[in-house]
Design goal:
- Two copies of one chain form a homodimer.
- The two termini of chain A are 21 Å apart.
- Chain A contains five helices and three strands, in the order H-H-E-H-H-E-E-H.
- In chain A, strands 1-3-2 form a three-stranded antiparallel beta sheet.
- Chain A has helices at 2-9, 14-23, 29-40, 48-61, 83-113; strands at 27-28, 64-69, 76-81.
- In chain A, helix 2 (14-23) packs across helix 3 and helix 2 crosses helix 5 (83-113).
- By secondary structure, chain A is mainly alpha-helical.
- The first copy, chain A, is elongated.
- The mean pLDDT of chain A is 92.
- Chain A has one domain: Winged helix-like DNA-binding domain superfamily/Winged helix DNA-binding domain (Arc Repressor Mutant, subunit A), CATH 1.10.10.
- In chain A, a hairpin with a 6-residue loop joins strand 2 (64-69) and strand 3 (76-81).
- The structure holds a DNA duplex (30 and 30 nucleotides).
DNA sequence: CAACAATATATCGTTGTACGATAGATGTCA
DNA sequence: TGACATCTATCGTACAACGATATATTGTTG
């Protein structure tokens, strides 16, 4: 029941995370995954089977654009933000802040009401 | 595409909100919905078709327990936290904090890297 | 050199939650 | 009486995240 909580938590905020990574500069899937997992520690285990469809979705939405790189032996698909993607980060970050504020508004009195342990 | 973001955001954190409301005392569905919507403003539009299955799920999990009240003309199903429910709020609240900290860790440098507008 | 781990992208079926629509019942107020 | 708010509930749909699996290349180690 608790793994479920962790898993469902990421719905909707995962794309914001990926866009955030790309705000630091162009990047490709495998490294994006590493970066998110590094920051997320045991909280966020971003799967490849989640990330790649997510990237395709963001590209279809026009938030990012891609380019294959065959110069090295191992081919990589680089992604970078579009102007729309940058706008999207800003609006979604604002929404995220408002959303967490709502939760905090419910959570703070709740924890205070709970017996000390 | 932005409504999707709002909708998907709630996945996984909605049950924590409902549990939080119940931490302030026993309550019934309709009022729980009102409370969450009041706090949520335009961010959180909790639907009845979402809430009632959610309550049933929490009860099946043993986090809450219910009791019908027929004393008034309009019948109401009152819910209250169980001991397991109180534990669950504490653990999920801690997870929530850690999760939002992760997002913030990605978001802050991202917003700093973005052109001023 | 062979075996194995890491790098790199991708697809597929399953699961589960939130939504909107719908239903049905009671109470209040004009 | 008719409209509206209260109150609980179910059903089909949409869709994101998961785990498994596939495939291919590069690096490491016995």
């Amino acid at each position: 029941m608790n793994e479920r909580f962790e898993r469902e938590l990421m719905r909707g905020s995962l794309d914001l995370m990926v866009l955030s990574v790309l705000a630091d500069g162009a990047n490709y899937g495998y490294l994006i995954q590493k970066r998110v997992r590094d920051v997320g520690g045991d909280m966020i285990k971003l799967q490849a089977g989640t990330l790649y469809p997510l990237l395709h979705r963001l590209e279809a939405d026009g938030a990012i654009r891609s380019k294959w790189d065959h110069s090295t032996g191992r081919k990589r698909k680089w992604y970078e933000l579009t102007a729309a993607g940058r706008r999207r980060i800003r609006t979604q970050a604002a929404q995220w802040d408002r959303y967490t504020a709502c939760i905090q508004q419910l959570l703070t009195p709740a924890l205070a009401a709970l017996p000390v342990k």
